[in-house]
Specification:
With 691 residues, the protein is α/β, with parallel strands linked by helices. 20% of the residues lie in helices and 18% in strands. The protein is built from 15 helices and 27 strands. A hairpin with a 2-residue loop joins β5 and β6. The longest helix is centred in the last third of the chain and has 20 residues. It is elongated and about 95 Å long.
Length: 691
C-alpha cells in the first residue's frame, strides 16, 4: 500500500475522506510504534494490509498520521499500538489487540465479536470490533436544520430506539423493528401524544456484551465510540447504513416538529476495570484517557462501571467537544442529556473542581449555543450537584422533584412543604441563581427505576431476572403498591392505581419547569417490578402496543395534559403564553382545606393553591394524598357571591370526566369542593380583577 507523505496531516483527527484518498490521524503520546491495519472483511483474522507509521516521519508531536491514496469510504480498518505494558505506570499497550479509531464514525461488529477475547492475552483480530471509513458530506439534508425550540414550550419523551418498536405487536415490519427506521414509523404516535422532543437512550456504539453472562447490555450505557451511531439500530446491512439511517430519522423527526436529544455517556467506557477488554482508548494512551487510582494499575471508579473518563485532561476535553460538534453539525442533533454529568467536574485525581474546564468549554462553545444541555447532576460516588451544577445554561434532572412528588402521593408525612416548592419550579434549589424556571427538568420516572405503572404496583424491586440475586438496583423507590404486590384482578385496587397514575402525570405536566415523560408511562407500561432492567432485551423493556388500547383512558389523559401544557389559547384569556409561562409569571396564594390557612405540619397530606396568572385567568389546584375525602373551601371570585369556577381536571373521576375541554368544563357550584381520597382537582376561571 502506497503512502503520500506530502498529504499526510495530523488534523483532523480520525479518517478524513478526500477525492484521491483518506487521511488518518490518531493520538498516542507513549506509543513506540503505531500500525494502521486494513481488512477486507470484518471477521478477518489477518489484515489485508499493515501500514507501519514511522515515529520520525509519520508523527507530529503526539499525533500519528498517514495519507493513503486511492482509499475510499467503506474501508474496514483498525490500529495496533506497540509500547510498554506496565500497569503500575498506567501503561497498557497490547499490539495483539485491534483497536477502534477513537474518532471513527462507523463501527463494524463481527458476528463472532468477543469481549472475552479482548480481555485476555493473544491476538483478537477475527473477533474485534473494527472502524469503517465514512464520507460525512455524502448526505442530502434537504435543508434540515436544528429546531431550537424554547424550553418553555418543551415536553420531553425519554425513549429507547429499539424498545419503541421491537415488540412484534408494534405494527412495524420485522426487518425494521428496533431500528432508526422503525422509530420513524412511530412519529405519528409521538405527534398525537403531543411531546416536542424525543430523548433517546444512548445511541453511541456500545458493547452489548458488557452485561452478566447470558444477558445483553440493552440500555447502551457502555460506549466504545463517542462518534459512531450504534450499528444494530440500523435496518440496513451495509456498514455505512447506521450513519444514513440515523440521519433519516433525525430529518423525519424534525419535519414533524420533534427535536432529538441524545443521552450521552462521556463519563466512562465499556473497557471497564483492570480486568476489562482493550477495545480503544486503553490501548492508545490509558493514563491520559482514564482517571487512575493511587495504584496506577487500577482505575478510579466514580461511575460504578469500573472506570472513569478523565474528562478534564486536555486530549479528552478536545475529544468530548469534537464529539458534540459532530453530533450537532453532521448529525443535526438538537440537544444532549449528560449521564452522570458530575463526573465532568472532577479533575485528573478525581477531586471536584470549582470551575471544570470541560464544562465551561461546553457552556461557552459557539457551535453548542442554543443546543439543549441537560445534566444528570450527580455521580455514583456521592457527588450530588442538583441546584449547584456549574454554568449558566445547563438544565438539570431534578431528582428531588421525583422523590418529593413520589413521597407526597404515597402519603408520607412531612412532604407538603417540599411539594409546594416542586410545584413552583423548585425555587429552594434554583432560586439563588435567578435562572429561568425551566432549569428544573421535572420527572417522576425514567429508564432507571420503576415505570409509572410499577411505581403504583410494587413496594419492592423484583430484579431476579438480571441474575444478580435481586441485589442490583436501588432499594429506595418511594413506591406504593396500593394494597397488592404486582398485577391484580381487584377492580378497586386497579381503580386506585389508575388514579395515582393520573396524579403523577398531573403534577409532572403542570408544575413549573421542563416536564419529561418516560416511554410507555402514558399507557401504564410495566417491567414487572424490575427497577434495573438494563440487561433485558426482551418484552420486559419493549413497548407493548396493546396497552395503547387497554389503557386508552390514561393515554387520552396524558395527551390532554400535554395539550394544556403547551396551548396558548386558554379559553378566554388573551395572553399568548404556555401554561409553564403563565404559572411562572403568576402569583400564588396557598391554602389548606381552609382558605389562606395552608397546613405545613408534619402530618399534613393536603394542599391547595390559587394561581393568579397575567391577564384574566385564575387556577385553583387542590391536592389530597389523605386516605379520606376532604372538603376544600373555594376562593370567592365575584362580588355578587357567585363563584365562576370550572372543573378542568379531577383525577378521581373516570374518563372522559377526569379531564375536560376548556369550553366544555362543567361549572362548579357551592363554596367548597369535595375531593376524593388520593386525588387532585384543577379548577379555572376568568375574572376581570382579583378580589
Amino acid at each position: 500500500m502506497t503512502m503520500d507523505l506530502s498529504k499526510s496531516k495530523c488534523f483532523p483527527l480520525g479518517p478524513t475522506v478526500y477525492e484521491d484518498g483518506v487521511n488518518f490521524s490518531v493520538f498516542s503520546k507513549s506509543a513506540a510504534l503505531v500500525e494502521l491495519v486494513l481488512f477486507e472483511h470484518v471477521d478477518d483474522a489477518v489484515p489485508a494490509c499493515v501500514i507501519r507509521l514511522d515515529p520520525g516521519r509519520d508523527r507530529t508531536y503526539h499525533y500519528w498520521h498517514v495519507f493513503i491514496p486511492g482509499l475510499v469510504p467503506g474501508q474496514i480498518y483498525g490500529y495496533r499500538v506497540h509500547g510498554p505494558f506496565e500497569p503500575d505506570r498506567g501503561l497498557r499497550f497490547d499490539p495483539g489487540k485491534v483497536l477502534l479509531d477513537p474518532y471513527g464514525k462507523v463501527v463494524a461488529v463481527p458476528d463472532g465479536y468477543s469481549r472475552k477475547a479482548a480481555s485476555e492475552p493473544g491476538d483478537n483480530a477475527a473477533s474485534a470490533m473494527k472502524s469503517v471509513v465514512a464520507d460525512l458530506d455524502d448526505y442530502d439534508w434537504e435543508g434540515d436544520t436544528l429546531l431550537m425550540c424554547p424550553f418553555s414550550a418543551t415536553v420531553i419523551y425519554e425513549a429507547h430506539v429499539a424498545g419503541l418498536t421491537k415488540n412484534p405487536n408494534s405494527g412495524v415490519a420485522a426487518d425494521k423493528r428496533g431500528t432508526y427506521a422503525g422509530l420513524i414509523e412511530k412519529i405519528p404516535y409521538l405527534k398525537a401524544l403531543g411531546v416536542t422532543a424525543v430523548e433517546l437512550l444512548p445511541v453511541f456504539q456500545f458493547d452489548e456484551q458488557d452485561a452478566p453472562a447470558g444477558r445483553t447490555n440493552y440500555w447502551g450505557y457502555a460506549p466504545v465510540s463517542f462518534f459512531a451511531p450504534h450499528g444494530r439500530y440500523s435496518s440496513r446491512k451495509d456498514f455505512l447504513g447506521p450513519l444514513c439511517e440515523f440521519r433519516d430519522m433525525v430529518k423525519a423527526l424534525h419535519r414533524a416538529g420533534l427535536e432529538v436529544i441524545l443521552d450521552v455517556v462521556y463519563n466512562h467506557t465499556a473497557e471497564g476495570d483492570h480486568n476489562g477488554p482493550t477495545v480503544c482508548l486503553r490501548g492508545f494512551e490509558n493514563s491520559a484517557y482514564y482517571v487512575l487510582d493511587n495504584d496506577r494499575a487500577c482505575f478510579a471508579n466514580y461511575t460504578g462501571t469500573g472506570n472513569t473518563l478523565n474528562a478534564n485532561q486536555p486530549i479528552v476535553r478536545r475529544m468530548i467537544i469534537d464529539s458534540l460538534h459532530f453530533w450537532v453539525e453532521k448529525m443535526h442533533v438538537d440537544g444532549f442529556r449528560f449521564d452522570l454529568a458530575s463526573i465532568l467536574s472532577r479533575d485528573e485525581s478525581g477531586r471536584p473542581m470549582e470551575n471544570p474546564p470541560v464544562l465551561w468549554d461546553i457552556e461557552s462553545d459557539p457551535v453548542l449555543a442554543g443546543v439543549k444541555l441537560i445534566a444528570e447532576a450527580w455521580d455514583a460516588a456521592g457527588l450530588y450537584q442538583v441546584g449547584g451544577f456549574i454554568g449558566d445554561n445547563w438544565k438539570e434532572w431534578n431528582g428531588k422533584f421525583r422523590d418529593d412528588v413520589r413521597a407526597f402521593l404515597k402519603g408520607d408525612d412531612g412532604t407538603v412543604p417540599r411539594l409546594a416548592q416542586r410545584l413552583m419550579g423548585s425555587p429552594d434549589i434554583y432560586g439563588h441563581k435567578e435562572r429561568e424556571p425551566e432549569q428544573s427538568v421535572n420527572f417522576v420516572t425514567c429508564h432507571d427505576g420503576f415505570t409509572l405503572n410499577d411505581l403504583v404496583s410494587y413496594n419492592c424491586k423484583h430484579n431476579e431476572a438480571n441474575g444478580e440475586d435481586n441485589k442490583d438496583g436501588t432499594d429506595y423507590n418511594v413506591s406504593w403498591n396500593c394494597g397488592v404486590e404486582g398485577p391484580t384482578d381487584d377492580s378497586a385496587i386497579e381503580k386506585l392505581r389508575n388514579r395515582q397514575v393520573r396524579n403523577f402525570l398531573t403534577i409532572a405536566l403542570t408544575a413549573v419547569g421542563t416536564p419529561m415523560l418516560s416511554m410507555g408511562d402514558e399507557v401504564r407500561l410495566t417491567r414487572r417490578g424490575n427497577n434495573n432492567a438494563y440487561c433485558q432485551d426482551n418484552e420486559t423493556n419493549w413497548f407493548d402496543w396493546s396497552l395503547v388500547e387497554k389503557h386508552a383512558d390514561i393515554c387520552r389523559f396524558t395527551k390532554s395534559l400535554i395539550h394544556y401544557r403547551l396551548s396558548r389559547e386558554h379559553g378566554k384569556t388573551t395572553r399568548l403564553m404556555s401554561l409553564n409561562e403563565l404559572l411562572h409569571n403568576a402569583r400564588f396564594d396557598w391554602h389548606g382545606v381552609k382558605l389562606n390557612q395552608p397546613d405545613w405540619s408534619h402530618d399534613s397530606h393536603s394542599l391547595a393553591v390559587t394561581v393568579w396568572t397575567p391577564g384574566n385567568l385564575v387556577f385553583h389546584i387542590m391536592l389530597n394524598s389523605y386516605r379520606e375525602p376532604l372538603d376544600f373551601e373555594l376562593p370567592l371570585l365575584s362580588k355578587d357571591g357567585v363563584n365562576p369556577w370550572h372543573r378542568l381536571v379531577d383525577t378521581s373521576l373516570e374518563s372522559p370526566d377526569d379531564i375536560c375541554l376548556w369550553n366544555k368544563a362543567p361549572r362548579v357550584t357551592g363554596e367548597t369542593y369535595s375531593l376524593c381520597p388520593r386525588s387532585i382537582a384543577f379548577l379555572f376561571s376568568h375574572v376581570r380583577e382579583r378580589l
